[in-house]
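Whiteboard transcription, Tuesday session. T.W. wrote the structure tokens on the left side:
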């Protein structure tokens, strides 16, 4: 439980410090948020983060931040111009809803890892 609390604390700390640190291309206008339910392991979450890094819009500067809480993995990615195009690239689950720049996904493990 302490590790989970530390991860949440560190995620919140990063969110608070990011505006002070700065990042070209990390504006709210180009940030998308993925809210992914159904992930069970850190390996699944790491694979999702690696998969989504390919979506970045050609910038040398980018930002991803992921945190898990209560079975929901939230991943913030920037810069991404087109929310709909990003949603269409999701191959690790089913998009259940898009609200503004937030995409909700029900996670499904890749077919080759299901038993």
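and on the right, the sequence the group agreed on:
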């Amino acid at each position: 439980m302490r590790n989970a609390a530390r991860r949440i604390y560190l995620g919140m700390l990063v969110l608070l410090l990011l505006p002070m640190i700065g990042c070209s291309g990390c504006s709210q206008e180009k940030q998308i948020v993925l809210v992914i339910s159904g992930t069970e392991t850190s390996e699944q979450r790491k694979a999702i983060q690696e998969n989504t890094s390919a979506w970045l819009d050609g910038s040398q500067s980018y930002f991803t931040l992921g945190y898990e809480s209560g079975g929901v993995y939230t991943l913030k990615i920037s810069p991404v111009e087109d929310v709909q195009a990003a949603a269409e690239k999701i191959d690790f689950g089913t998009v259940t809803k898009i609200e503004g720049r937030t995409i909700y996904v029900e996670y499904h493990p890749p077919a080759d890892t299901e038993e």
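Someone added at the bottom: Residues 11 and 17 are 10 Å apart (CA to CA).
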